[in-house]
Design brief:
By secondary structure, this protein is of the alpha+beta class. The protein is built from 17 helices and 20 strands. The chain has a five-stranded antiparallel beta sheet. The protein is globular.
Length: about 750
């Protein structure tokens, strides 16, 4: 019963946002409208209607004291004789002289306050601050009603890809959250006045400048005679050959700097250029400054000049106030054409409507990356197809199997190109009305029980096909199915065809029915034009470590759902202990693996019960799964350098085991253990003088909560050769631990 309920919850979470209605040639897929914080702000709020306090109060109505009082009537002592006494009608003011209630201002006279129309166009804008040799700051800003409604702060590498926070300098780590919080909800004028974060002055100012430029780009009416943001702007060609710095004033380029990039994407400084590179750089610089994107290459340098011109164009787009790209910069992932043998996937980064990076994958029938186990020709085709796409700067619009396919992998080449094209469509600033791509798509349940294939056209599904997996993890051929399996497949196919993910479970086949519904939901996610929150792939993460080892999880995610999971209890040598681990842990691992797979999502995985007798290890393994989700996040809510917890690392020859404690998302404590040839921790009396010296240096405490002195770009140390050698081994282990702790 627990298995059934867990899987039902997982499927429900995946399906909850979908509503399926029967159509003629299939059924129409329509999303259920939801009320969000953003949509609520579009409804006029009470503050725009004159409040009751604007209506004149009762105190403004003439009071009864204005009516002549009875004391004005002559007293009896002064009254003349009856023959001369004025009648009451002549001395008492009539009631008609009292101001009537109609003199109170009516509600209709209250002033109507009209909302001030914003001078900005609502939308998402990606802009960058002034560039320098190590990259630049940027911001992805959502502007709504003249304010910053959402913001993601970027710190780019020379290739202008937002890099992991931990790879930035340490003064920046705590600046992200502070600056984001201070910029949210601000107008252009208010954002300009936000204080910079101490220790991150240049980056803080770079982010503020990026936000200011986002507002300028969002203006409905741009200033006359101004084409560029004044300053130094950076661009890189899609192939990563050159980084170009262009200084613009309001109307033109005034200076150009050219840097070749090395294999890692870092700039090669002028002092390190070869004579040939220096000559090429000089020629490119002069031509770009004179002619910009119209630069003409001398004979024999066409490839270099072509790349440099593309980099210049990129810098110019970053500098333009009226950047007209139809795409939102960022990461996007999409699938090509599916079939029963699998499908191709492309993960891309887009900037200014061009590819900055692309990675291509060939998935098997279980929709998990096959890597080097894919067909040999497909494996060989990956690199040349990647190069072809980057050289093109996008997908190949008029793709031809005869011209653009890689020999021996025509089908995969076409599918990869289609995947990149779909990724671009996901990036559109103004998406089309359709919620799903058109074509053939596949879905697999997270337990890999069955594969569903279906065609989607105009948001209608047709030609549903169900395939069962055998115990060996391979699809069972149609002619190999038993009569019972054939009957079940026919029933599942009919159920999905008629009702999709709302199909009624088949009696006595509830497990397969729920798997079919989950697979269908996966299919719709793979066909969706909306980018999910997580990157697909396999992530290795760890739970808290201690002096006997740690707990590891290899988590495979697809559409934010766990579709593959392996759990390990590793020793201080970071090697799986297998059956030699504690008996309760050995018993707990398959139970947790099953329950976490059934849970599927991040939220449900957190609710999985620990296994009795292995509480600590269960908690640590669940933490490892949670940390895998953190590593897979496309856009972190709050960017952090490290995950809080205790993380282990080991050096290459497995002679040093280090534990790093992360608090407030920075490493602040480290412990060092030396291992013998059997992978056991050495006792104190077994340590050499050099080992003790290094251990003392590393373990010397820092102020609690502050960054450990070897927590940022640690390097070997020592005054003697012995200490230097030992410290190099320890620092190697420290780096490994920091990598395991990194997001």
């Amino acid at each position: 019963m627990k298995k059934l309920i867990s899987l039902t919850v997982s499927a429900t979470l995946v399906l909850s946002s979908l509503s399926l209605t029967v159509g003629v040639s299939g059924y129409k897929l329509t999303g259920i409208d939801v009320v969000s914080a953003a949509s609520e702000t579009e409804t006029p709020v009470k503050e725009t209607t004159p409040s009751k306090t604007t209506t004149p109060s009762k105190t403004t109505t003439p009071s009864k004291t204005t009516t002549p009082s009875k004391t004005t009537t002559p007293s009896k002592t002064t009254t003349p004789s009856k023959t001369t006494t004025p009648s009451k009608t002549t001395t008492t003011p009539s009631k008609t002289t009292t101001p009537s209630k109609t003199t109170t201002p009516a509600k209709t006279t209250a002033p109507v306050v009209k909302p001030v129309e914003s001078k900005y166009v609502d939308g998402v804008y990606v802009t960058y601050g002034d560039a320098y040799s190590k990259g630049t700051e940027g911001a992805k800003v959502t502007i709504k009603d003249g304010k910053v409604a959402a913001i993601e702060l970027l710190r780019t590498s020379p290739k202008l890809i937002d890099r992991d926070v931990r790879n930035n300098y340490s003064g920046l780590w705590n600046a992200y959250e502070t600056m984001k919080a201070n910029l949210l909800g601000k107008t252009q004028e208010q954002a300009a006045k936000v204080d910079v974060v101490s220790g991150a002055t240049r980056s803080s100012n770079g982010w503020k400048l990026s936000v200011d430029r986002a507002f300028q780009r969002a203006l409905k009416v741009k200033p006359e005679g101004v084409t560029y943001f004044a300053g130094e702007h950076m661009g890189v060609d899609p192939e990563g050959k050159y980084m170009i710095f262009v200084t613009f004033d309001a109307t033109k380029a005034t200076a150009v700097k050219v840097y070749p990039l090395d294999a890692s994407g870092s700039a090669i400084e002028e002092a390190n250029l070869t004579e040939e590179q220096a000559a090429t750089v000089k020629a490119i610089t002069a031509e770009l400054l004179a002619k910009g994107t119209g630069a003409v290459s001398p004979k024999g340098q066409e490839a270099e000049f072509k790349a440099a011109v593309k980099a210049y164009w990129d810098a110019e787009q970053n500098a333009k106030i009226n950047n007209s790209t139809q795409y939102v910069d960022g990461f996007y992932s999409a699938y090509g054409t599916a079939r029963d043998k699998g499908v191709e996937r492309a993960d891309v980064y887009i900037r200014n409507g061009k590819l900055v990076d692309v990675k291509l994958y060939r998935l098997g029938s279980n929709l998990i990356d096959r890597g080097d186990t894919a067909y040999a020709d497909v494996v060989k085709a990956n690199a040349p197809m990647t190069a072809k796409l980057l050289a093109n700067g996008s997908f190949i619009a008029n793709y031809s199997d005869d011209v653009d396919a890689i020999a021996g992998a025509t089908e995969s080449s076409h599918s990869w190109n289609l995947a990149v094209e779909r990724a671009f469509e996901k990036a559109l600033k103004v998406p089309g009305k359709a919620k799903y791509f058109e074509g053939t798509f596949a879905g697999v349940d997270n337990l890999s029980k069955l594969l569903v294939l279906a065609d989607i056209q105009a948001d209608q599904v047709s030609n549903v096909n169900v395939h069962l997996f055998g115990a060996d993890g391979k699809l069972i051929a149609a002619d190999k199915l038993t009569e019972e399996q054939q009957t079940v497949v026919a029933q599942l196919t009919e159920g999905l065809t008629q009702k999709g993910a709302n199909m009624t479970p088949i009696v006595l086949q509830e497990d397969l029915s729920l798997a079919a519904r989950a697979a269908f939901a996966d299919l719709l996610n793979n066909a969706s034009k909306t980018q999910g929150a997580y990157k697909d792939g396999t992530y290795t993460a760890f739970g808290d470590a201690y002096d006997k080892g740690t707990n590891r999880a290899d988590v495979t995610l697809r559409n934010g759902v766990i579709v593959g999971l392996k759990l390990y209890r590793v020793g201080v040598n970071m090697v799986d202990r297998g059956a030699s681990a504690y008996a309760d842990v050995v018993r707990a691992i398959p139970i947790l693996t099953r329950d976490l797979l059934f849970a599927g999502t991040r939220e449900q995985a957190a609710k999985v019960d620990v296994v009795t007798g292995a509480t600590s290890s269960s908690t640590a393994l669940k933490t490892a799964v949670e940390n895998a989700f953190k590593k897979a996040e496309i856009s972190e809510t709050y960017k952090k350098a490290y995950i809080n917890g205790i993380f282990a690392g080991i050096n290459k020859d497995k002679s040093v085991y280090v534990m790093v404690t992360v608090q407030n998302n920075i490493p602040f404590k480290m412990e060092v253990f030396y291992l013998d040839a059997n992978g056991k921790i050495k006792t104190e009396d077994q340590l050499s003088a050099d080992e003790k010296t290094v251990k003392t240096e590393i373990e010397t405490p820092t102020t609690e909560g502050s960054l450990h002195k070897y927590g940022y770009r640690p390097a070997a140390f020592g005054e003697t050769d012995g200490v230097k050698a030992v410290s190099a081994q320890v620092i190697d282990a420290v780096k490994n631990a920091l990598e395991n702790a990194g997001r």
